């Protein structure tokens, strides 16, 4: 179970760090560059005060995030193809398209086929500065591919396989044919408390809160901004 949980959380951690660097434009910049970028921000989205109240970001942080978002997505919205193209640059040695598809669907909570800044920033706020329960709930929704309120073995196998594909040749241990199944079996052995073949949100949160490795990985988000 530890290996499966660790691998899945590593995928999510890399997702958040990559997305944050993407929207702030800090892939090759230091703090001085960020401060300069902040000073030249002049355009901000409608409802900035409302977003500040709804998220855990300050107004200045929202300005920087919005500028980065607009630089990458001038139209102000991101469709799935664009999201995949942007995300793929962070995993040049693997195929991130399937994981990016699942990730896009998690960010597209309105099922509109696109991600607007407001929706993106709400999710980012949860992942970076939300409570443990909020972060775990978001993660559960990512793994609940068909959004029926449960994680089944097929969904978890798809997620684990997508993470291996994303990591590419750097996957360790090297992926064998039965590796995803082994991880999924271990996942359900620990998380499926009542042995009914699916994992509910409550089971998922309880099991994650009992796992120190998962809790430690969630703490990584605190240092992103």
Number of helices: 12
Beta-strand content bin: 5-15%
Average pLDDT works out at 78
Helix/strand structural class: mainly alpha
Number of strands: 4
Largest sheet: 2 strands, antiparallel
Helix residue percentage: 55-70%
Instruction: Please mark out the parts with pLDDT under 50 across 5 or more consecutive residues, or reply none.
Output: 1-13, 22-44
How many angstroms does the end-to-end distance come to?
30 Å
The gross shape turns out to be globular
Strand arrangement, largest sheet? Answer: 1-2
- Give the assembly state of these chains: single chain
Give the H and E element order. Answer: HHHHEHHEHHEHHEHH
> If you compute it from the alpha carbons, what radius of gyration comes out, rounded to the nearest whole angstrom?
18 Å
Overview of the molecule:
Residues 131-166, 179-214 form the EF-hand domain. This is EF-hand domain-containing protein. InterPro entries: EF-hand-dom_pair (IPR011992), EF_Hand_1_Ca_BS (IPR018247), EF_hand_dom (IPR002048), Recoverin (IPR028846). Its main location: membrane. It is a single chain. Helix 1 crosses helix 10, helix 6 crosses helix 8 and helix 6 crosses helix 9. 64% of the residues lie in helices and 5% in strands. The strands form two sheets. The protein has a two-stranded antiparallel ribbon. With 225 residues, the protein is mainly α. The model is unreliable at 1-13 and 22-44 (pLDDT under 50). The relative contact order is 0.15. The chain has twelve helices and four strands; from the N terminus they run ααααβααβααβααβαα. The two termini are 30 Å apart.
């Amino acid at each position: 179970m530890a290996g499966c949980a660790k691998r899945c959380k590593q995928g999510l951690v890399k997702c958040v760090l990559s997305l944050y660097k993407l929207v702030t434009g800090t892939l090759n910049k230091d703090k001085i560059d960020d401060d300069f970028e902040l000073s030249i921000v002049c355009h901000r989205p409608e409802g900035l005060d409302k977003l500040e109240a709804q998220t855990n970001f300050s107004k200045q942080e929202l300005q920087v995030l919005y500028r980065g978002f607009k630089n990458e997505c001038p139209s102000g919205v991101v469709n799935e193809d664009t999201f995949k193209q942007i995300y793929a640059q962070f995993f040049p040695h693997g195929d991130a398209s399937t994981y990016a598809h699942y990730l896009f669907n998690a960010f597209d909570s309105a099922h509109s086929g696109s991600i607007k800044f407001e929706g993106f920033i709400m999710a980012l706020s949860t992942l970076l500065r939300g409570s443990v329960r909020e972060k775990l709930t978001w993660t559960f929704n990512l793994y609940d591919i068909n959004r029926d309120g449960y994680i089944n073995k097929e969904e978890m196998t798809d997620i684990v396989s997508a993470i291996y594909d994303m990591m590419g040749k750097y996957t360790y241990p090297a992926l064998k044919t039965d590796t995803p199944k082994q991880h999924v079996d271990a996942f359900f052995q620990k998380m499926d408390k009542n042995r009914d073949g699916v994992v509910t949100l409550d089971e998922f949160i309880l099991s994650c809160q009992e796992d120190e490795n998962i809790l430690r990985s969630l703490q990584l988000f605190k240092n992103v901004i």
